[in-house]
């Protein structure tokens, strides 16, 4: 259980700090999308892991994070499809399912497009962002109950993180096997996946980051290794009953929110516990999304399936 808490901590922390760049679907949601695309046989778990893997650099949380994100998700503003490097590098049958899932995730015309840019609910705004704007006033009220006057951009970032988490839990409610599938896809990840990432990105990373290709390869493989561990444990955490999963995530988000607020010049007294505020925030996010999240995800599956075909991604 302690290891699960650590994994949930890393995932939620990354989500909060990434809010200024892009707020995509959560890992379980991506796995659910890929579970309904492509193969239904042994390659299915490879597609699931590949579909989660573009977020593997999110957890580095350093000054290069925006560049790394653009490589695995694409650059929406320039329309650079850097994520296709993995598909081009996949030359052998065992690599194709990973690459197929990886490409399905992208921010330009993949699953993250509907979360971040244009969803059925948002109509010109991503689903996650549109729902976060509905949740934001409640987050303001919860924080004001502690005597905090938090800037709107900060409360929106927190609301986005809660929506992403809430949808992941709703997806697990819809398909209770998703926690197991997330863990299994990471646990059974083949040895051919890290070299695929190295083939796709090491040369470019080395040039951009002014490091050697060996150092770039090490950055890629070590990041993937940590991501894999987190997905194993995150799946196990969400494999618990729903109340336990919510409690685990609320406790950790509460601790992380203290540091997040401090980074914006809003320090809290030592020992402050925001769990009583965060837990209802997650539950409200779930309530806000419960009526239409599945319709949004099903539309996303259909959208991504068509986009993959139109972009020549099939095997």
Topology:
Blueprint: H1 2-17, H2 27-35, H3 44-52, H4 65-73, H5 84-89, H6 96-104, H7 111-116, H8 127-144, H9 152-174, H10 178-187, H11 193-209, H12 213-238, H13 242-263, H14 275-289, H15 293-310
What can you tell me about this protein's structure?
The chain has one domain (2-310). The termini are far apart. The chain is built from 15 helices and no strands. Helices cover 68% and strands 0% of the residues. The protein has helices at residues 2-17, 27-35, 44-52, 65-73, 84-89, 96-104, 111-116, 127-144, 152-174, 178-187, 193-209, 213-238, 242-263, 275-289, 293-310. The longest helix is centred in the last third of the chain and has 26 residues, at 213-238. Helix 2 (27-35) packs across helix 9 (152-174) and helix 8 (127-144) runs antiparallel to helix 14. The mean pLDDT is 89. 50% of the residues are buried. With 315 residues, the chain is mainly α.
